[in-house]
C-alpha cells in the first residue's frame, strides 16, 4: 500500500489504482462488526434493504410483518461502539401501512425526500420521507413481487413493477430504457420500453445449442424459478440466480451466457432473492444470500472467496454500501447485520521486528489493478 501511495504522490501512478486496491482490500476483509449494531425493530423476517445513493447514509428495510423502517447509518456519537438507530418507521398501527409482507423498498435515486415500497397486498406506494405519508398508491390485480426505478433515467420516471410470477426486475444502469425481468417459468427477458413489442431477447442458458437440435426448444435461463437478478455496476453484465441452485453471468449486450461456473449456489426461496454486487473493486464481487450466510464470489472467475456467518436463520437480502465498502444483510431471524472491513493492524516481522501492516488481499489479486478497467 505504501508503494501505491508513493507512486501516486510522485505522479507515477493513476489514482484509480490506489482506490481500487484499497476498496478490494476492504471487501476481502469484511467481517461481522462487534462494535456496530442495527436497532432491531422488525418482528418478523426482513425481505428487502436499500441504501440511498445520494449520501449513502440512510437505509430502508421492509419486512414480512408489513413494516418499513428508516435507519441512519452514520455514527453521530463518534464513539467506537454504536447502534444504527431507526429514525422512523411505518408500523402496523400506521393508517397507510402495507397489510401484508413488504417485498421491495427503494429510495428515489436522486433525492432522499421520496421512497417506494411494494407488497403482497397488491399495492405499490410512493412515500414522502418527511411526512411519512403516501404521495400516491398504485393498486394491482395480482401480488407485486418486485419493483425498480432506473438509477440513470433522465427522460422518464417509470417504475418497473411485476405481478404474479415475475419475481425480480431491474433497470439497466447503462441504458435508461432497458429492463431485465426474471420469472417463475425459468425465463429472463430483456426489454426496451420504447419498442411496441417490448422484448429484446429471452436469455438462453445453452446459447442456442439446444434450439438447433429441436425446433420446439424454448429458451430458458435456469432449470427452475429465476428469483433474483442484478446488473454489474457498469451495466455490461447481468447476474441471475435460480432455484436450480445456480448463478449465471450474462453479457447484457449480446445476451450470451458467459458460462462462468460458481458451483452450487443454494437457493430455496419461494419469492424474490435480493443480492448485491461491489463497485470500484478489482476484481468485482457478488454478495449472495446462501441459506443463513452470505457467499462472496468473484464475478468473472466464479471463485467463492468466503462465507459471511452470523445470522441464525435464512438470509433473504443484502445491500452493498460502495462509499465505505460495507455490507448489510437482512434475515428471517429479524436482524440486520453490519459487515465492516477489518482495520489494518500492525504485525511484527520476524527478521526486522518493524511494524508491518497485515495484508488481507488474496495474493492472486495483488497485481490485478489496472486503470484500463475504467476505460470504455
TrEMBL record:
Source organism (scientific name): Gallus gallus (Chicken)
Gene3D superfamilies: YVTN repeat-like/Quinoprotein amine dehydrogenase
Protein name stated in the entry: ERCC excision repair 8, CSA ubiquitin ligase complex subunit
SUPFAM superfamilies named among the record's database cross-references: WD40 repeat-like (SSF50978)
GO biological process, one term: transcription-coupled nucleotide-excision repair
Gene: ERCC8
Database matches in InterPro entries: Rad28/ERCC8/Ckn1/ATCSA-1, WD40/YVTN_repeat-like_dom_sf, WD40_PAC1, WD40_repeat_CS, WD40_repeat_dom_sf, WD40_rpt
Family matches, as Pfam families: WD40
Keywords for this protein: DNA damage, DNA repair, Repeat, WD repeat
Highest taxon in the source lineage: Eukaryota
Coiled coil regions in record: none
Amino acid at each position: 500500500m505504501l508503494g501505491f501511495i508513493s507512486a501516486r504522490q510522485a505522479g507515477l501512478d493513476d489514482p484509480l489504482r490506489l482506490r481500487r486496491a484499497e476498496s478490494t482490500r476492504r471487501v476481502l476483509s469484511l467481517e461481522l462488526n462487534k462494535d456496530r449494531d442495527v436497532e432491531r425493530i422488525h418482528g418478523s423476517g426482513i425481505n428487502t434493504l436499500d441504501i440511498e445513493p445520494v449520501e449513502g447514509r440512510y437505509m430502508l428495510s421492509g419486512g414480512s410483518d408489513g413494516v418499513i423502517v428508516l435507519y441512519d447509518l452514520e455514527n453521530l456519537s463518534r464513539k467506537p461502539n454504536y447502534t444504527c438507530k431507526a429514525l422512523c418507521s411505518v408500523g402496523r398501527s400506521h393508517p397507510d401501512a402495507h397489510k401484508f409482507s413488504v417485498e421491495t423498498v427503494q429510495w428515489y435515486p436522486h433525492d432522499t425526500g421520496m421512497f417506494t415500497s411494494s407488497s403482497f397486498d397488491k399495492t405499490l406506494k410512493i412515500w414522502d420521507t418527511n411526512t411519512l405519508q403516501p404521495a400516491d398508491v398504485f393498486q394491482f390485480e395480482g401480488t407485486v413481487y418486485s419493483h425498480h426505478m432506473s438509477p440513470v433515467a433522465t427522460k422518464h420516471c417509470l417504475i418497473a413493477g411485476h405481478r404474479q410470477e415475475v419475481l425480480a426486475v431491474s433497470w439497466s444502469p447503462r441504458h435508461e430504457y432497458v429492463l431485465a425481468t426474471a420469472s417463475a417459468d425459468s425465463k429472463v427477458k430483456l426489454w426496451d420500453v420504447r419498442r411496441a413489442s417490448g422484448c429484446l431477447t429471452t436469455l438462453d442458458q445453452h446459447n442456442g445449442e439446444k434450439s438447433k437440435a429441436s425446433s420446439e426448444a424454448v429458451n430458458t435461463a435456469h432449470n427452475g424459478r429465476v428469483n433474483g437478478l442484478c446488473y454489474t455496476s457498469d451495466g455490461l453484465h447481468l447476474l441471475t440466480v435460480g432455484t436450480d441452485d445456480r448463478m449465471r453471468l450474462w453479457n447484457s449486450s449480446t445476451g450470451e451466457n458467459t458460462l462462468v461456473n460458481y458451483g452450487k449456489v443454494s437457493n430455496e426461496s419461494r419469492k424474490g432473492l435480493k443480492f448485491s454486487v461491489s463497485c470500484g473493486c478489482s476484481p468485482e464481487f457478488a454478495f449472495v444470500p446462501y441459506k443463513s450466510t452470505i457467499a462472496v464470489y468473484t464475478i468473472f472467475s466464479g471463485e467463492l472467496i468466503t462465507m459471511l456467518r452470523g445470522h441464525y436463520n435464512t438470509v433473504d437480502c443484502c445491500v452493498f454500501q460502495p462509499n465505505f465498502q460495507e455490507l448489510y444483510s437482512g434475515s428471517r431471524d429479524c436482524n440486520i447485520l453490519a459487515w465492516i472491513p477489518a482495520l489494518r493492524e500492525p504485525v511484527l516481522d520476524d527478521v526486522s521486528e518493524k511494524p508491518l501492516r497485515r495484508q488481507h488481499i488474496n495474493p492472486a489479486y495483488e497485481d490485478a489493478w489496472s486503470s484500463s478497467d475504467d476505460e470504455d
